Amino acid sequence: MTNRLHFQKRVWAGAALLVVVIVCALLAPWIAPHDPLEQDLMAASLPPAWRAGGEAAYLFGTDTLGRDILSRLIYGARPAMIVAFAGATLAALIGTVLGLWAGFHGGAVDAVVSRLVDVWMSFPAVLLSIVLVAVIGTGLGSVVLAIAIIDWTRFCRVVRAETQVQASLDYVTSARTIGQSRGTTLWREVLPNVAPLLMTLFTLEMGIAVVIEAILSFVGLSVSSDMPTWGGLVQEGRLYVNQTPWLLGLPIAAIAATVLACNALGDGLRASLDPLLER
Amino acid sequence: MPLKRLLWAVPTLFGVLVVVFVLLRLAPGDPIAMMIGPGATPDDIRALRTLYGFDRSVPEQFVIYLGQAATGQFGQSITLKRDVLELVLAQLPLTLELSLLALGLAILIGGGAALAAVAWRGTAVERVIDLFTGFVTAIPDFLWGLAGVLFLGVLLPVLPVFGLLDPMLRFEPVSGFMLGESLLRGRLDVFGSALHHLLWPALSLSLPLAAMISRVLKASLLEVLAQDYILIARVKGFSPWQVLWREALRNALGPALTLAGVQFTFLIGGTVLIERLFGLPGLGNMAIDAVINRDLPLIQGIVLTFALLFILVNLAVDVLHTRINPKLRR
Predict the structure, then answer these.
(1) Which residue in the set B27, B287, B307 is minimally distant from A130, CB to CB?
(2) Out of B147, B292, B306, whose CB is closest to A127?
(3) Chain B contact for A245 (CB, 8 A cutoff)
(4) Coil, strand or helix at A62
(5) pTM for this model (two decimals)
(6) Which one, A58, A66, B122, B205, has the greatest CB density within 10 A?
(7) What residues in B contact A235, CB-CB < 8 Å?
(8) Paired residues of A62 in beta bridges
(9) Model confidence over A95-123: pLDDT tens digits?
(10) Residue A128 and residue A140: Cα distance in Å, rounded?
(11) A47 DSSP assignment
(12) DSSP B63-84
């Protein structure tokens, strides 16, 4: 546990980047230099400010309708972060409850939950999310729900295995011996010991959720198209990639940076919190 | 063992059928309302309801649906006005070719990287490969595809990033398999162009899998290399490469093979998006249009086709695994 205090460098790097994205999402109306929906056809398809023909007022240039790309990127952080936090929280909740239950009870409950996880995980996520959105409809809520329905298994599998390990340890037996109920033991003794693992999974899941949101908004199955999303920006950029390549490059960079930040944070936390992995 | 697996496939397929049936009946919106034109009379609507069995009870509907699924009758696509099975069979070959090409690339790149990292272990080569596999795993195929469009399609235009063939070429494969049929019929210009167009889509699908194969294969190679018979082979005078290639690889292949098999289904799932991104006329691209247009018969046909494909892949992996690992044969 001594490792807790000196986290690895990548934890700091990942956390710092993620904080920037979160701040953008929270303070978008105050940070963004322009209204993300405001069209200025006189200033359409401007390149970034540092390139020939760019204007200082539009740091990252404009799209084909003259909308400021920097502002659209900043506003795009909102749906990305909403989906990342809400989707990961919901998936973690379902997965943790089922995982704790299956891991602690064992027997038939465990067999059923494990079998369900196996079958669930054998179905590719992209396909499942598209079918789900077809059924429950588009919109941010649907995307969050789809992520939870698809990815609760990631949490469930790991939490179940870890709970099994914890349940066999002496402290759990002691807690039961002094008369604590099963529920109290799970909540007060086992859960805190599973929590570090949960934190790691949660960060990794945020990265996955950001990509799923980008994919769904790219194919037009997320929020309505006038709300700026990173996936929507990618879709626009893909259309005009030969005329305005920066329109594609900038949202790709935003998505990739966020995903890498989540991965760095998650992997770094895992290494820092797990003494066995620390070498 | 394979027979037991085969028996497992039946309930899995049945489960998928049930899930698709339930999901599509939960879907908001009346499918009949989407099929009728503006001037339809109540009689027309009733006729359609009877035709599709919507006037029956839910269990009856399920039995009808099972019969239809077993015989491949998924009805007509609402938007494309053609038989669903016909549409699926027309688009499936490209998706299969793209997936197999990507699988081949993943095995080649992943296997090569693992062998190189083990052969030059402890040197800069190993460190570069480790760094590269870590980086590649973190980035999903969607972003690899996009990065290719930007860097190799536009900024340094060396690859075509839209469509399947050069627009100047005319070639209609009878079988639907563009790569396979053009090669067999000796149309090397068509084969070359299609391969050129599919190179980056296939590579973006393969990179995450290649990184995983490389990691697992490297770990099991290192484990095998620590065993006594490897030392004996060395003492006998085999060169390090011979030991690696002829002695270690065969025994280290099992875990990597299982992983490649399991992940292959995810790779096939990834084609949905990659086809969209690169404008390739495959099953996945059609699936997205079907969802956008809420074309329920078509969605159902495509999802069941994919599910069947995944079950077949899993079966094939099991059979292959038992062949390679004699311990599993009983």
Answers:
(1) B287
(2) B306
(3) yes
(4) strand
(5) 0.84
(6) B205
(7) none
(8) A68
(9) 999 999 898 888 888 888 888 887 777 67
(10) 17
(11) P
(12) HHHHHHHHTT---B-TTT-SBH
